[in-house]
Amino acid sequence: MKISYEWLREYVNTKLRAENIASKLTMAGHEVSAITRQGNDFIFDMEITPNRADCLSHLGIAREAAAITGKELKVPCVKIRKTISVKKPLNVSVENRQACPRYTCRVINNVKIAPSPKWLVKRIESMGLRTVNNIVDITNFVLFETGQPLHAFDSDKFSGQEIIVRNAKHKECITTIDGIERKLSSRMLVIADGERPMAIAGVMGGKHAEVTEKTENIFLESAYFDAVSVRRAAFNLGLSTDSSYRFERGVDLGGILFASDRATSLICDIAKGEPCGIKDTGIKRGAGTKIILRPAYLNKILGTSLKATEIGSILSRLGFSVKGASSLIVTVPTYRNDTTRETDLAEEVARIYGYENITPSPLKVVTTTEDLQTRDFMKKRDITKNMLVASGFNEIITYSLVNGDTIKNTAFSGEDFVAIKNPLSREQNIMRTSLLPGILRTIAYNLSRQAYQIAGRQAYDLKLFELSNIYFQKKAEYNEEPSLVLAQYDRPGKGLQKDYSETGLFQLKGALSGLGKRLGITGLVFEKTSHPVFDKDEAAAILAGNIMLGVIGRVNEEILHSFGISGQLFIAELNFNMLAASSNLKRYYKPLPRFPYSYRDVSFSIDSSIPYSELASFFRQTGLPTSAQAGGAQLEKVKLLSEYRGKQIEKKRRALAIRMIFRSKKKTLTEEEIDVVDTAIREGLKEKFNAILR
Amino acid sequence: MEERLSNTEKDALGEIGAAQAKDELEQVRIKYLGRKGILARFFKELETVSGEKRPVVGQAINRLKKVLAQSIKQREGELSSKAGKADSLGVDITMPGADPGIGNLHPVTKTLNDICGIFSHMGFAVIEGPEIETEFNNFEALNIPLEHPSRDTFDTFYIDTKNFDTDMEKRRLLRSHTSPVQIRYMQDKVPPFSIVAPGKVFRPDATDASHSFMFYQVEGLVVGKDINFANLKWTLFEFARQYFGTSSKMRFRPHFFPFTEPSAEVDISCMICNGAGCRVCSQSGWLEILGAGMVDPNVFQAVNIDTGLYSGFAFGMGVERIAMLKHGIDDIRLLYENDIRFLKQF
Questions:
Q1: Which residues pair with A35 in a beta bridge?
Q2: Residue from B170, B200, B253, B332 to probe the interface with A (highest A Cβ count within 10 Å)
Q3: Interface confidence (ipTM) of the complex
Q4: pTM of the entire structure?
């Protein structure tokens, strides 16, 4: 809202410069967001909070300025010449009292329509409006002066001396003064004569009864229209006006006549109109609400020690009437319909006293702790994020709203997705059911911007993860659950000649295994599976015992292509609730070994169809012979050193090198003792797995 | 003989020092300490020395032998380190170290951690709530009635539910602020308590440099028997001191929020211009960073907390804005584009 500094000073006698008064208003809750110089004047751009309808005018702001500065408020005096009587008095009937609690209309005859005088033009233009004619300008002037919207009709356009305030009829239309024909609904209130609607109540007048240069006689409306009713009409018409804006926030029931009289007196002065009687129907005046204000309560809420007299003085300056000494009986002026409770008065006092004058006082700590389940979950989430960062992954955060078309891609299953009723665009019309599309898009984005730089042997610069919610719908139930996605990008052509452990898939698996270990997840296994996002040969389910945690794999060409990614991309997606539930952060100390270890390496070739997991369990079983109890050698650890497939070896076979680490709990081992177990393993490999030892 | 010994020492030490290479030094060593060297000759001569002087001279020769051996060893060390340098020029410590390949947390996560960490240390619990909410929790319980202008500032995404227009009870929305977490917590718990609630919120704002339809907030709530506005000021001042540093200033301006009374908007002194006025703070020297106030009695009523017994304060801050101010980020979109060069900067 615009406020003219010069105009404001007509009502409050302050010598404060524009920026000083602006800063005082800001610190009293009426933010002046910008000051623009306009000739000799300064225009304040003000942000009036929705509770302060009374401040949507120059008098309203002047009242605040007067209260802040302790100066007197000068309300313009209104003089109306003796009214003339008319033969046929105006009849006003209000059919919907709820939507129009009060309606006043003054008849003014023989007005001389003309351009407005200079001073009026200046005021109107300072508000960013264009001058129309003296009558229209006066109604606008009074609106910006008092905050009460007024409307002047050309009364000769009415079918008789009758005004009807009623709901619009079905399919009724009106052409508003902006020249647009608008369809009305039966929930909208109109001002009508016997034949047609003349205005949409509180929103905009109609073209038909518009005041033009030919107008001679007018009806001057000053009314109280119900906030919700105006708000609904303005919303449904997509039309917000200076008038509707004020009615929506609630005008001053006690200020309706004053505004009407003020406009009438100006019309008589400027347009030489002859005022007739005023028709006033409905609630005459809102009885001033009385509130008991206990200074002790106020000081308790604010943390102040204000005296009753100080409190009373501040409230009086704001127009409240205050009685009593210990408990104050405060009568609220009609324009302050926002003030209904003791706490509202406390705010008024604090505001004018100045928030900056309230001394901070240390908070008596109300120590509160999370319940253990929440704490445990958050801790595991922190561990996960920190662990992944330590493993070289960068956290990303992508939008929870995604394009519905993405989800239609079967790869990102999403039957039970949650759709947005009022999306901003197709790009964000549903809630994601997977973090995959987001991370794929992020990889593609980084590649297209050359954000990823290939530097020397560092093969995996582009490692990302996201831990965020995904969303589902089940009938009328909505679920949101945290999901974890990891991606590791490997540039094209890389990784062909590498050892298996340097390939993206096993690097990613290694990161997950490391995370699993840190989280204390036992029985973490990876089982081959098929998945629409992944290459059919390189996809696995991730399980903790029998619990499915997620999937890992190499993204297939089709998906890569659809996101415009070239190269190799490895991704894992996990249900984070499951991961956290499988995690156990308890740790028990195991005594450290007292004797040295020895190791032996075994290299062999074996049929490619035999999985390593099978070999590993064979090693474990054979490595723990009964002689270990007596202090003999025991296989403590098995480590896969390398895998080789290729020309140097028969088809459908692969060569593996495995390091076996032996130790005894009771002594330092001799070569002979190690031989016992080592030989058993080598023989077993030959017999059970048809291995060829090398 | 003593005199000859001391002359020999002088000569030998001079020659050792003058040796510029290992073979030169070896020649010196042989000359003095070799099997037929000068010292060997002294030892032979010793046999001719009279009985009472012999031990004294013997000790002198032995001492000289030790001194020369040590001096040669030392010179050898000097020469070999010199030789090493001549071969490989030593280690060039200015070459880059190996990249440990560590990743990074997202700047928003770091900011959230910092904010929640400060309040945690003050004794607040960190509480989270759902992003898909009811109208009651997001609006009504927070004293934001339907069809009231106070809702205008809370443009909201609605979920496309069945019979959206008629079945109001089952309407769901994406929370437009983290305040519903307050409601859930207060419905559940008996005061006193102090919590912060971090999380994602959504508003249908067209995306530009300072607006995003998805962003994070941290909500704070303290309810107890004697909680007042002065406590609120202290708490937020303390937060500003810890997060922005001791040179930062904070001011409270009266404002309106449906769920607090009295309400305040809180500004921090602009860290770009130190309050002098610049483009970032629109010349005002201040930047708005949060909203706060005393919990409105209507909110307490909605969650059945006795307003006669308890009072409380609440505050809410936009995490991106705080991160942007702290790190000088001028476009909120950078946070959600996830350019790895950006992410690695924090």
A1: A44
A2: B253
A3: 0.88
A4: 0.85
